Amino acid sequence: MKILGQVAFLLLLGGIWCQNNRNAKASGRSTKKAGGNQGGDVGQSPLAVDMTPGSTVSTRGTGGTAEAGREAAAGARGAGQQTDDMRLHFLKNTQVTCNDGTASLLFLGGWCCHSRETCDSRYQNIPRLMSSSGWPRTKRGTGILSSQVEENPYWHNANIFCASNHLLSAEYTFMGSLIIREVIKDLIPKGIKLAKVVMLSGTSAGGTGVLLNIERVASQLEQLGAEAQVRGLVDSGWFLESKQQRSPNCPETISCSPEDAIKIGLRLWNGVVPDRCRQLYKRGEEWQCFFGHKLYSTLTSPLFVVQWLFDEEQLRVENIYMGGQSLSEEQWQYIQNLGRELKNSLTDVTAVFAPSCLSHTLITKSNWMNFQVRGTSLPRALHCWDRSLEATRNNRTPAKGCPFHLVDTCQWPQCNPTCPALVDQATQQELTLLQMLVAMGLDLQKLGLDPQGDADSLASMVSNGG
């Protein structure tokens, strides 16, 4: 694998924006608790799973530590085994740990945990997002993490680190920003100071983590004397505030809006938001910096935003589950409005890929090359963005006919012909949008929708490429 290149290192932050957990709260936790706030920052947490693509020398291998991984990779090459998997590494600084005190790895996970009750529930139901103890020694990357040129034509040979972020209560350790700092330090002997580009990327909550941490990463690399340009890739982390009025106490995740969860959590996380955004708001209003449409204008590093216009996690915030429950007329109206509001919030974003689809996360899907906006795929748009930034850095005129501001113009969810299929959760059958609306109890004629007429209208929009 090459160390140098247009994108030498890809730091991936992944996760779930806010899981509306319908399961009963856990009565307790039987694993080790590591104490208190230890320099944690908003947007990241203690769990960081370091899944690096093979050695930065040549291949991807197997191993528990960096040293063991290199030895195992060499052995695998000698035996003719597949060495394209990402390899598990532990941070050198053993004081920077996961939520339960286990060794920090790298893979930024979900964050909707803001109290002892919600954190206990999360630890019981999704332990892999809070502990490194169950992680495998190797993992096959997909989408932008894939080493296969057919699946990932532009970044298959990038050096990849992942991390997991949660925002947690004071009873758990939360060291996400510290983990990112330590990952950068561990990458120094691997050549990060010689890289041309470092792209910090994340999905869902990890996308929010990119927004909150990219300036800090750029500053750290600058202080190290690196000349790399730090860029951000935000996948499905561009959320809007909730429309519902709810109890500000919200003891359970499902009853809490994102704003209230952040407000409550900030008092426990010892969290810090980017300085330039914090200065825009009075004390107690820092939570607003968690929303991309408010934070974006304060950032100086280049950012590319990937966002489904009808994001399923945004819908779940409003207790809307497509294909899994009944749907009211008011909820259908909210879905329609969501696309317009998300579209408007992205107007001033320089680089964006926003299909008019119902889904969540994109860049790590194995079929990520299939989705298009106006005939351009996401990998192609990212490549165009990369070329434009390189041209600007070298005082050249960016190439024409290579777009990277791509927002669907059609108004309906699923009007883009490349959208992921909708699936009825009860029957697991694929349905069209109108079929799903009927299955969820909506009277199309009462809503002023003629099934045949609107099907024709949708077909017309699809034929025009969204």
TrEMBL record:
Q: Which region ranges are annotated with the description Disordered?
A: 26-80
Protein's GO biological process: negative regulation of canonical Wnt signaling pathway
Recorded GO MF terms? palmitoleyl hydrolase activity
Q: Where is composition skewed (Low complexity) in this entry?
A: 67-80
Q: What's a Pfam family this protein contains?
A: PAE
The question of whether Signal is a record keyword is answered with yes
Q: Which UniProt keywords apply?
A: Signal
UniProt record similarity statement: Belongs to the pectinacetylesterase family. Notum subfamily.
From the UniProt annotation, give the residues forming the signal peptide: 1-18
- Residues in a coiled coil are none
Source organism superkingdom: Eukaryota
Q: What is the protein's given name?
A: Notum pectinacetylesterase 2
Provide the species name: Dicentrarchus labrax (European seabass)
